[in-house]
Amino acid sequence: MSYIAPCGWGRLATFARESYAAEGRGYICFTVPPIPDPDQPSKMEMVYYVLTQVQRLAANLSGVLREQADILIRMIETYDPATQAVVMAAVGTVDPIAIKMRLVMPFVVDEAEASIEPSAVRTTAPRR
User: Fold this and answer.
1) Which of 5, 13, 53, 57 could form a cystine bridge with 103, CB 3.0-4.6 A?
2) What whole-number distance in Å separates Cα of residue 91 and Cα of residue 76?
3) What is the pLDDT of residues 27-72, one digit of tens each?
4) 104 falls in which pLDDT band (50, 70, 90)?
């Protein structure tokens, strides 16, 4: 599966669930191109690679690359698809990084009683 669009945590989690349901164990690789103009929106591409694809590629590797592939394979074999996904992020030309991501955000941001101004952060006094 693949998907190209602006993306957030929710879309990434949905893509992980749908890809696992359709194809089994694997990982999401998403790439974000370097942003030449920070005022322009950036789009990322997500591709789902299944475990057997990774194992086939790893069979032809040696040395450090094989060790890194083995780590990725272990991550794919051990994540809990009900609550996690394995995600590899490649941003611009920086080396990619793989993580196990929770499918549900680990925290909820409530409305804060703070106002962020360009020069400082000012919090309001408690209400009486």
Assistant:
1) 13
2) 21
3) 999 887 776 666 776 677 889 999 999 999 999 999 999 999 999 9
4) confident
- Residues, the chain: 128
Question: The tokens of 17 are what?
Answer: 């669930």
Distance CA 53, CA 72 (A): 12
**DSSP strand pairing (26-32 vs 97-102):** unpaired
State both tokens at 113. 């009683």
Q: Which residue has the tokens 């974000």?
A: 32
| Predicted TM-score of the model (pTM) | 0.70
| Alpha carbon distance 114, 23 (integer Å) | 45
